[in-house]
Amino acid sequence: MTITLGEGNTPLLQAPRLSERLGVELWLKWEGANPTGSFKDRGMSVAVTRAVEGGATTVVCASTGNTAASAAAYAARAGLEAVIVVAAGGTASSKLVQVRAVGGRIVEVDGSFSDAYAHAEELASQNGHVLVNSTNPDRIEGQKTAAFEILEQLGGLPDVLTLPYGGGGNTKAYALGFMEAAGALPRLHPVESAQRATTLASAIRITDPIHRAEVDAALAQSGGSVVTVDDAEIVRAWRALGREEGLFCEPASAAGLAGLERGSAKQGERVVCVITGHGLKDPDAVG
Asked: pLDDT tens, 12-71?
């Protein structure tokens, strides 16, 4: 039985005003339309389904918030327990509300996301427990479906794909999906905050990306690069998405657009910018 809440098949929206201003053909992959409001639901459906098939009783994850909300929801759907490990003070309160609403158990640890992840790995070593972070390959298998959808919705490969860069799992997943379905990659430009440890974009507040090596390999293959922006640029892009295209996303989700503002695409190129999460995920981040 597939554990699903109706994830995927999210809109690919043309962005005429931003396209004109930036001199590109810009499309926005609106992942905030997923059931818990972020792209994490794609992979969580597969990971939790496989956990059930393997006889698990509990799923465990470390999270800056979106993975937490998704893991807790899909665990509830499957009748499993969910244990969510977060760094104290590092997660948007609205995401923790999502966890509590569906019965997930939150464990706070002092330190960074890396400390939370280490504790989650320890918990997941217990019998009947499964780690559902993006280091679980089932998560990546689910997330790569977004690349399949873009190919179908556009009728081909974009020139450029830009997206937020926290742990790097989503960049890895898109690269896998495009290679599997098209045998080629768009130029990949994951975008990170210069203030990784303290950025207001809490969803990418990850000091040491777990998938750095895989991201670097995908960038070398695609001819892309990591783009580093500051928080002020992320906030400007966040406002532009709302005021120019009507999309209310969480600040981290605007990182891809902030990278475009830095010139990561050439004039006239067809660009897909992945908008990873809904604005209600982190409504207090920007005043």
From this structure: 999 999 999 999 999 999 999 999 999 999 999 999 999 999 999 999 999 988 999 999
Backbone angles phi, psi at 82, to 5 degrees: -130, 130
> Residue 189: which residues within 8 A CB-CB, separation 6 or more?
160, 161, 162, 163, 224, 225, 226, 227, 256, 259, 264, 265
Report the DSSP beta bridge partners of residue 65.
none
Query: Could you give the domains of the chain?
Result: 12-39+139-281 (3.40.50.1100), 40-136 (3.40.50.1100)
What b-and-e string marks burial along 29-43, b requiring 16 or more CB atoms within 10 Å of the CB? Answer: bbbbbbbbbbbbbbb
Tokens at 121, concatenated: 């790995």
Q: How buried is residue 156: exposed, middle or buried, by Cβ count under 10 Å (0-12/13-18/19+)?
A: exposed
Helix H or strand E segment including 274: strand 270-275
CA separation, residue 263 to residues 153, 162, 237, 246, 266 (Å)? 25, 11, 13, 22, 7
Q: Cα–Cα distance between 20 and 67 in angstroms, integer?
A: 34
- Bridge-based pairing state of the strands 187-193 and 227-229: parallel
Three-state helix/strand/coil letters over 157-207: CCCEEEEECCCCHHHHHHHHHHHHHHCCCCEEEEEEECCCCCCCCHHHCCC
One-letter amino acid at 25 equals E
Helix 40-53 and helix 66-78, axial crossing angle in degrees, nearest 10? 40
Q: How many Cβ atoms sit within 10 Å of the Cβ of residue 106? A: 16
DSSP-derived 3-state class of residue 229 = strand
Instruction: List, for residues 200-252, the tens digit of each pLDDT value.
Output: 999 999 999 999 999 999 999 999 999 999 999 999 999 999 999 999 999 99
